[in-house]
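Researcher: Please predict.
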Amino acid sequence: MMLAGLGLLVGCASRQSGRSLPGALWPEPRAVASGGTAVPPSSRVTAGSGLPGVLPRDNWARGNPIASKVNPMTTPHHITIHHDGMTPFHATNARDVAAQIERIRSMHVGNRGWGDIGYHYVVDRSGRSWSARPIRYQGAHVQYQNPGNIGVLCLGNFEEQSPSRQQLSGLHVLLVALSTRYRIPERNILTHQEWSTANTLCPGRNLQSRIDAMRRSGTLV
């Protein structure tokens, strides 16, 4: 396993190289929102915010979030779609998928010094959704835009492979569930590259084109 080498590629690829991690996935300073003010307790997302049909974290994680390195999540108002940008991933069985998610968590914690995996949910190639970073904690997936922003990772490198039909269907189901629960309008569902502060190819041309098509056909949510 090329674990050490993969550690440099965990996350979305930059526009400059198309392969290397550009440092666009930093968490904000602890307990401070994007405007530099303390996060008010009334705006935080509490525990017990799981979604029906989403596989629980204990199906894959070998470690818990490090409380001293994560911020409380403010009321969600955006959803951002990502790919992992690593070596193309084609596995569909639960064991391999669980190992891949744990691999990403381990690299985010071990290589980047974060408190947990950066994303809140993961969608695999068979269409299953997995709970990643607990939704009560702010993610680490779009630089300067993490407060109130739910991170959804689709496993794979979609500059080099295409998402499966099942993966796109699973993504749609998850986006509908999240947008309904948190009252997030479709206009606030973005891909990583669509943020003006981002400089990235994420989620890759082959997923970006599918997202664009889903929007045009009214089937994103």
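Model: Strands lie at 78-83, 121-123, 129-131, 149-154, 189-191.
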